[in-house]
Amino acid sequence: MKVFSDAKTTLKIQNHGKYEIAYRYRITPTCDINFGPLIFGGRKTKPFIIENTGVFETRFSISCMIAQSPERGKKPPLDLTNRHNAVGGKVKPEYMQKDMCIAQTRLTVGVFSVYPCTAVVLPGSQQVVTVECSGDELGSFDQGLIIDICDRDPSDHPDGIPYKLLAEVYKTVSTFIHNGFFED
């Protein structure tokens, strides 16, 4: 090998020591956010926290859960290793390409708005994610989200961490008060 020439070598690194390199996180509350009953036209805000309890910075992204078709039941796993474009380079599925090109700071789905929906969380710190529910539509709402924390253990929710938002928006009803007046 010449001293001034470029050298390319692939190194395979394995951790055989007692220390585990892991990206650890905690989400609080651990499951659904339920806004409960909400009067039509009203608005409620609730937070949840994504905390980095590991030793490396980590990134997260929040996206809308896509409902599965009832006839299939379960979607087939994606095989990203064999997909190539015309030039021979590997490509990601179309939905992943779109998500990576558009860095959103707010995700709005139905009556729910979530922000920020992407962030970098430093070790030992946390990111507060705000969820707003606006009572602009009547009905019961059950929206699934997927929280993707980069570099987490692949056995820990391989398709993303499911998280639900629940609310019920209703109209007020006039009630008769004892002295004969109606009240909204």
UniProtKB/TrEMBL annotation:
A GO cellular component annotation in the UniProt record: axoneme
GO BP terms in the entry: axonemal central apparatus assembly; cilium movement
Domain of life, source organism: Eukaryota
UniProt xrefs under InterPro entries: Hydin-like (IPR033305), Ig-like_fold (IPR013783)
Coiled-coil regions listed: none
Name this polypeptide is given: Uncharacterized protein
Source lineage: Eukaryota, Metazoa, Chordata, Craniata, Vertebrata
